[in-house]
Structure formats: C-alpha cells, structure tokens
Design a protein that fits this description.
The complex is a heterodimer of chains A (about 625) and B (about 270).
Chain A: E1 2-3, E2 16-24, H1 28-39, E3 62-65, E4 79-80, H2 83-88, E5 101-102, E6 105-111, H3 122-133, E7 140-141, E8 144-146, E9 160-161, H4 164-178, E10 182-184, E11 189-195, E12 198-204, E13 207-209, E14 215-220, E15 224-232, H5 239-248, E16 259-268, E17 279-284, E18 292-297, E19 302-310, H6 320-329, H7 331-337, E20 341-351, E21 362-363, E22 366-368, H8 384-403, H9 410-423, H10 425-433, H11 444-456, H12 475-479, H13 485-498, H14 503-509, H15 525-533, E23 545-547, H16 550-554, H17 560-563, E24 570-571, E25 579-580, H18 590-594, E26 606-608
Parallel strand pairs in A: 2-3, 2-15, 3-10, 6-17, 15-22
Antiparallel strand pairs in A: 1-11, 4-9, 5-9, 6-8, 7-8, 11-12, 12-15, 13-14, 16-19, 16-20, 17-18, 18-19, 21-22, 23-26, 24-25
Helix pairs in contact in A: 1-4, 1-8, 8-9
Chain B: E1 6-10, E2 13-15, E3 23-26, E4 29-32, E5 40-42, H1 44-58, E6 64-71, H2 73-83, E7 90-95, H3 104-116, E8 126-131, H4 142-149, E9 155-164, E10 170-175, E11 181-186, E12 191-195, H5 207-222, E13 225-226, H6 256-269
Parallel strand pairs in B: 1-6, 1-8, 6-7, 7-13, 8-12, 9-12
Antiparallel strand pairs in B: 2-5, 3-4, 9-10, 10-11
Classes of the chains: A alpha+beta (about 625), B alpha/beta (about 270).
Chain lengths: ~625, ~270
C-alpha cells in the first residue's frame, strides 16, 4: 500500500481504523451525498437497513472529514436555482436557513468605467461612447446600463439567495441529528491510501509537527482510515482529488485549465439602504472588462458583493482585493453600499473548465463528486446546485450497490453512479455549456457572443469551436503602452526590494485612485483578514504551501502566486523564492493555478497540501 | 469504588471568539445580534476542565466523565463535532437558550437537577468540574451554585492542578496572586473544582475517540430535554462588549521614533 501523503516518507507507526465509507470535504456535493444516504439508511421501524460490511453486526459506518475548522466556513456562490436541493428538500422553507431567501428581483448590468483606468478594447470604448451619447434613450444611471433581458440560461429567477456557509451548516445539522453519519471538521486529509490500483481509504494529516512537518512535542501521526469506498468531494484544489488524478491519470480529453478566483464581502447595509432581500445583480464590464461581479441581498440587511477574476484575464496584475474595492465603489453599487459595514470576507478558486475538467469519476474503491469532478455549469455560472446533484447521484448509486451487496468496484460504480450522472438534467446542461466560454480568450465581446451562441443553440454551435489557452501576458505586453519600459522596470525592482506585490503601484500609476479607507467597509487587505475572515491557523500542522523547485521561482517574474494571493500569505522572499505564512492563508488555492510554471512543459511549482485552519467566518 | 471518580464537567458553549459580537435588545431581553449564525465553541475555560477531567480519569480506571451543558441543541451538536475527537466523555445535554444572558441561579437549578438524575452517578465519588471564569456572559458563579445545590461543601476556584494522594485524598493547587499557588488537601470527593488553565495542552484530534464518543453523544442530544422557561422578573440594565480600540491611519515615510511616539500618545489618550 502507498499513500501520496508527504508524510509517507517518514516511517512511523500509524493508528488504523476501518469504516465503510470515508468522505473527504464537506460542501454541497457531500451534503447531497450524505443526505441521500442517511435518509435511506433506516427501515421505517428505525432499525438499520444495512449492516456494516466493515464491522459486521454494526450499522453502516460513514465518516466525513472536513479540513476547515467549522462546517460553515466555506466560501462559494450565493445564488442558485436550487433545483436539485429542492428535490432533496421538497418542503424547503428558505426561512429555515439563516441568510436564505427567494430571488425576487434580478438584474444584469453592464458597468461602464467612471474613472477611465480600466483596460478597454477599441470596440468596447466605442460601445461605451455610444452608450454615453444615447444614455437618455437607454436604461442608464450611475455609469451603468441595465440590460432589458436576462437570457434564460443565465437567469436565477426561481432560485435562492444563500450564504453557502450557513447552508452547509444547516445541512450538517440535519445530518448530524440523523445519527447516521459522522462529520468531523478541523480534520485535514493528506492523501488517499492506494493499494493494488484501488483506493482503500485516506490518511489524515499529521498533528504535532513544526512548519516543515518534523515531529515535535505531542506528535500524532495522521491516522490511516481504511474504507471500502472513499468519496472525494474536496473541491478543485483538494489534496485527495488531485492525488487521485496524479496516480490514476485523467481522461485524454480532460484539462482543468480554466479557473477563476471568486472573492466576496458580506456587508451589513446602511440603515437607509432600500435594497430588498432577494435582489440579485449580476455585472460585467468593470473594474476590468474580463471581471464579472455580483450583489446578492440576504434578509436582515445583509448583502454579498463579490467578483470573479478569471484565468483568461491575461494581466499579471491580478489582485482580486483591490479590484473588489473598486467594484464596491462603482456608483451603481456605492449608492446602495455607502454607510455599510464589512461583516465577512473570503475567497475561493473556482474550477471553470466545467465538463472539460472532468476527471475519472470513479474507480476501484473511490468516487468523485462536486466541483472537483467537473460539475460546474460554466454557461449558467452555477456550481452549488450541480455539485449537490452529483452527490445525490452517488448517494443513490451507493444505496443500490449496498442493497444488491455489490462491491465498490470501478465497474459497479460505473453502472450505478456514472450512469445516473450521465442521465441527469445537469449533465445534459453541462454538455450545452462545455464550449460556451471559448470566446473569452479573444476578449469580452467575443466571449459574450460565444455564450449567447452556445446558450441559444443548446450547445450545438460554439464560438470558437475549439478552446485556445493563452498564458498570462507579460507586464510589458499589458502595460507597456501606458508605462514606459524603464519605469516599469524600476517599479519591478522597487517591488522586489520592498518585498511587496506589484499590483498596487501599477494600478495607481494607471489611474486607479487610492481606496479611501473608512475603517468600516473600505479597509486594508490585512484588516479584511482579521475583521472579515477571522483567519486562523491551528498550531501543530505543517505548512501546506510549498515551492517544489526553488530554482524555478528564481527566474519567475512576475510572481503571480504573490500577486494573486488572497490573504497576502505569499510574499516575495529573499533570493526570489516566495515566503509563505500559513497564518494568513485562507485556502483559496489561487497560488496553485497561478503558478507560471504550470503553463510550460513542467508541472506547477506549487505543492498545495492538506492543511488546517483558514477562515473562521460562517457568513460567507 | 475508592480511587474511582465520577467527574461531571459543566461547560457552556460560546461564540467563536474570532467573531464580532454585537449586543442588542430583543423582545426576550438582551441578546447577541445574529447569534445563531455565529459558530460556537466550548467555553475555553471549561474546555481546560474537560481535558483535566479526562486526564484524571485515565489514571483512575473505572472512572467516568460526563460533559454537562445547557444550550441550544443545534449549537451543542456543532460544538460536539470539534470537541468529541479530543477526549472520551458522555454527554448530558439540556436544550436551552443561546444568549448566555441567563440567570446563574436558574442555570444552576436546571443543571443540578439534570446531574442529580444522571443514571449510574455515584455522588459520593462526584467531582464537579468547570471553568473558574467563563467566556460567556454569565456572572461566573454558576459552578459554585450548582455545587451548593448538590450539597458539595468543598469548593476550589482557580485550580491549576489536582493530584490524588496515596490515602485517596486530593492535593489541589489554586492560583493566587503573584503567580503562586495555594495548596490544599481535600479528603476526597465530592468536591467542586473551578479550573483556571491547568497544565495540559489541548489534546490532538483522535478519530477513534471521536467515533466512540459519537455513539453516545448523538442519542444524548436526541434525548436532550428542553430547559424550563426563564423565571420572569430578571432585567438587564445594559449590555456592551469589551471595548476594542481601533484607529487606522495610513502614513508613509514616518520615522520609527515618530511612529512609536504616536502610538504611545494614543495609548495614553485611550
């Protein structure tokens, strides 16, 4: 048996435990899986329906390990059509879930640039000029145009506005109360256990180590939890899912190249704010044309405001935080948000390859569910409901196999799980969405055109038909027109000398105004870590971000891992190798897909391992 | 039974200290804004008591440890997910309100009654543990009041260490001024011990302990009886969180001496 765990090189005696089903990562997909499983694990008289194959005489032993310190500390999308969720909870009353409400009003808004600092193509500048000239004839206000119509494939009219953290917490409470499954937060899983081409369980992360993983006082080697079925739902940057991909490979057609960093704030709106709960505003066009934004209004004067920085945004100046502040300050948003107070903040990587990023969904002893299994619908911009659906599919499949006393082999999971998944409505929609975003590699307008084409033709026509991947451009390519080369060079040298990211000085030089900090809503990124994210790192765990080949970092410029780090946990280090401070890491995983080494022939230079800690806010 | 302890650890749940707490006036009296949304933890002082209880029980085979808690069932369940992997215990849960603005006498009455009714509890071997202080909004007297209601006369506060002596008596170190301890010898249980921080580190998560604990914890939660409504007549005049002084100013190129002087001035003014 071997483990992909970094600790495996150290010969230590590990405790062993045997369960029937070991699950990794508690998000919407795992919620769907465990809800389906637990509801059907008892006979009507309350006796167990299934005897544990692992522990004969006992009921089914199902255990789920979540890395974060609480089930409600996840960050993700907050508006969903909730079709699969409602299928699981037909009588769902949103009022049962804190911060949830029905979508009552939805807008799609094009934001113009009120400052004149964003990078807009000639076509877009022309369109902006046209809009401003004829603004009296258009639904124009506050440097924005509300589109008269939201395409059906994008609309969330019948959906829910939610806090995913609160939703996860609510689902977790139902599950724990059922007594059929055990869910353990604050339990990072370092790797799958692999034996004879089968996954046979998971290894928990070592505890009681120094930052380099060396045993210290109170060392407790991570336990080996053997299981008949391992369910990997640890998301797109999860250690278990990636280790399974590394060991078993991925289908030839699979490529998880498209990513985005989603960052959001939860804001308590001012007393005089007139936004109604259930209001949903989607935006595009600002702060940069490639950046999509949103504002969702929850009950009790709370609102989520955020944006997505996609991997096709070629600028190496990829700071989500400062861009988010400029979005908040856009007049169309600011009229609602002025006087608000930041209550929570967070960020996560979104795997935006959708169907193209689908790995092998099942193998001997394991199954993949959720975002890491390529479930996100990139046309609808929807992932929560789709992830939930994959969990339900697997739950039903596992029940079928248990009922028929079949083993969790590749063939059996193929026929029970993958067959269900392929037959689902969500899978059909993901086919439609598969190539819908190809156009964004050529700009905003080709991207929007491509989405419309895919959406209105049911995915039969895509523009362009083939996906083309562009690497992030160099600073000179993007900013050479605005900033003379010698000055750009001086800025780079200055950033290196001061050990800070480049983005602030470049944005300021390009005309982005300084953020007028008010100590309530507009605060520094470090203050956001404390006031919004309440970020914490448990002692006794090793660093979870490592730079594998330091020599690769020496020649890397700009260092996107530094530029895009959501918590400023990665900073420029002496001699060019970045430093990592785990006490600021929020586990967004942006360093993983922003490593420039990944775009070359070599694999990425960032090893993103299982770790403990992160956000301590349940409002996200 | 000599040498065996029946330890009941009284522990409340409190909001995760990393959260921002805002007292508000609710129809039912003072409360915290959005309290049910806030993640909860076991009161840190009581958590130390729990670790000490488990440690003591481990050295005295046959001993039992109960964790007695009054709080909303959903919050107790959430807290169990984090605490139950640490040490072995049985749960005694009472489903009550969240706010923490509870009358210590009412809480003590409810918990004392629940402890008295514990099946298998030998009150002659009872050690009642809890936190010396509390991170909740309680008055910090609940433990003493429970002890009083259970008729336990030997009470110790600010405990950092307990040692069982050869004759079965207990040597107890209570924290006093100047970083020193008062050493007391207690003949044995029953006794009340309000723990300071103790000497034990937080135990690592142990999945096997978690699995074993959950077999009894979930049924206990399901059977948790609702606490009777609060006694009328209790009135809070006001409630406010500890004041956090915060003042952010962005400056560039300021000499270190000037920064230090400014901070010192600010501290003096605050």
């Amino acid at each position: 048996m071997n483990s992909a765990a970094p600790e495996s090189t150290t010969a230590v005696e590990r405790q062993q435990m045997l369960v029937d089903i070991a699950c990794v990562g508690f998000g919407p997909a795992m919620g769907g899986f465990l809800t389906t499983l637990s509801r059907n694990s008892l006979h009507p008289d309350g006796s167990p329906r299934f005897e544990s194959p692992a522990s004969p005489g006992a009921p089914l032993q199902v255990i789920c390990y979540e890395r974060a310190d609480g089930l409600g500390f996840g960050v993700s999308g907050a508006v969903t059509r909730a079709r699969a969720i409602r299928a699981s909870f037909p009588d769902l009353d949103p009022a049962q879930i804190p911060m949830a409400t029905k979508v009552k009003k939805e807008e799609l808004v094009y934001l113009l640039d009120p400052i004149g600092a964003s990078r807009r193509s000639l076509a877009l500048r022309t369109a902006d000029k046209f809009i401003r000239t004829f603004r009296k004839l258009l639904p124009f206000r506050d440097h924005a145009v509300k589109l008269p119509y939201i395409p059906g494939f994008l609309a969330k009219h019948d959906g829910l506005v939610m806090s995913l953290g609160q939703f996860n917490q609510w689902v977790g409470e139902q599950l724990a109360a059922s007594g059929q499954v055990q869910i353990w937060p604050s339990s990072p899983v370092s790797a799958p256990l692999i034996e004879n081409d089968a996954v046979v369980g998971v290894r928990l992360a070592d505890q009681g180590t120094d930052l380099h993983g060396s045993p210290q006082d109170g060392f407790m080697p991570g336990m080996d939890v053997h299981a008949l079925l391992t369910v990997a739902g640890d998301g797109p940057v999860g250690a278990v899912g990636r280790a399974i991909d590394a060991h078993f490979g991925v289908p030839d057609s699979s490529h998880a190249r498209e990513w985005a960093l989603g960052m959001k704030m939860v804001i308590e709106l001012g007393e005089d704010c007139s936004l109604e709960p259930g209001t949903v505003i989607h935006t595009f066009g600002y702060p940069e044309p490639e950046i999509f934004g949103f504002l969702y209004v929850h009950p009790n004067r709370l609102a989520s405001v955020g944006l997505f920085i996609p991997s096709w945004f070629r600028s190496p100046v990829r700071t989500a935080y400062r861009y988010l502040q400029h979005l908040v300050l856009h007049p169309y948003f600011w009229r609602h948000l002025e006087g608000g107070t930041l209550k929570s903040w967070g960020a996560k990587s979104v795997q935006e390859s959708g169907r193209h990023g689908e790995p092998f969904l099942a193998g001997n002893g394991y199954a993949r569910i959720g975002e890491g299994s390529g479930s996100t619908n990139v046309l609808a911009g929807s992932g929560v409901d789709e992830a939930w659906s994959t969990g339900v599919d697997l739950g039903e499949a596992v029940l079928e196999l248990l009922e028929r006393k079949r083993a969790f082999t590749r063939e059996n999971l193929q026929s029970a799980y993958i067959r269900r998944r392929r037959a689902s409505l969500f899978d059909q929609e993901s086919r439609v969405a598969a190539n819908s975003r190809n156009g964004f590699h050529f700009g905003l307008l080709p991207g929007l055109f491509g989405m419309a084409l895919a959406g209105y033709t049911g995915g039969r026509v895509a523009f362009p038909s083939q996906h083309r991947q562009h690497a992030p451009a160099s600073l000179e390519d993007v900013y050479g027109v605005r900033i003379p080369s010698p000055e750009l060079q001086r800025m780079k040298e200055d950033a290196i000398a001061r050990g800070v990211p480049l983005h602030d000085q470049i944005m300021t030089r390009c005309g982005w105004p300084e953020i007028p900090f008010d100590g309530k809503l507009l605060i520094s990124q470090q203050d956001a870590l404390l006031m919004g994210g309440s970020v914490q790192a448990q002692p006794g765990y090793a660093n979870h971000v490592l730079f594998v080949r330091p020599q690769v970092c020496l020649n890397c410029e700009p260092q996107l891992c530094v530029e895009m780090c959501s918590g400023q946990a990665i900073t420029r280090g002496e001699n060019g190798v970045p430093n990592f401070d785990r006490e600021k890491c929020i586990f967004c995983g942006a360093c993983l897909w922003n490593c420039l080494a990944e775009t070359g022939s070599e694999p990425g230079n960032v090893d993103f391992r299982a770790g403990s800690g992160g956000l301590h806010s349940a409002l996200n | 039974m000599s040498g065996v302890f029946h330890i009941v650890v009284c522990a409340g749940t409190v909001p995760d200290p990393l959260q921002t707490l805002e007292p508000i006036e609710s129809p039912a009296g003072p409360a915290l804004k959005n309290e049910m949304l806030l993640p909860a933890i076991l009161d840190p002082w009581a958590a130390h008591a729990l670790y000490e209880a488990a440690n003591l029980a481990a050295y005295h085979p046959g001993s039992r440890v109960w964790l007695a808690s009054l709080g909303p069932k959903a919050k107790l369940q959430q807290v169990m997910m984090t605490i139950a992997q640490k040490v072995s215990f049985e749960l005694l849960a009472v489903d009550g309100s969240a706010s923490g603005f509870a009358d210590a006498h009412s809480t003590a009455e409810i918990l004392a009654a629940a402890i008295s009714a514990l099946p298998g509890l030998d009150r002659s071997r009872l050690l009642l543990f809890g936190g010396w202080e509390s991170a909740s909004r309680g008055a910090g007297v609940t433990l003493q009041l429970i002890g009083g209601r259970l008729g336990i006369l030997d009470q110790f506060q600010g405990v950092d260490q307990i040692t069982t002596l050869a004759d079965g008596s207990l040597e107890i170190l209570e924290r006093i001024e100047g970083g020193r301890h008062q050493v007391s010898i207690c003949a044995g249980p029953p006794a009340v011990l309000g723990w300071a921080t103790g000497n034990l580190p937080e135990p690592r998560n142990n999945p096997q302990i978690g699995m074993a604990n959950m077999r009894t914890i979930m049924p206990a939660l399901q059977k948790a009886k609702p606490a009777p409504p609060a006694q009328p007549g209790l009135e809070y005049r006001s409630a406010s969180p500890p004041k956090q002084q915060r003042h952010t100013r962005i400056v560039k190129d300021l000499a270190a001496e000037e920064v230090a002087r400014e901070i010192a001035d600010w501290i003096i003014k605050s």
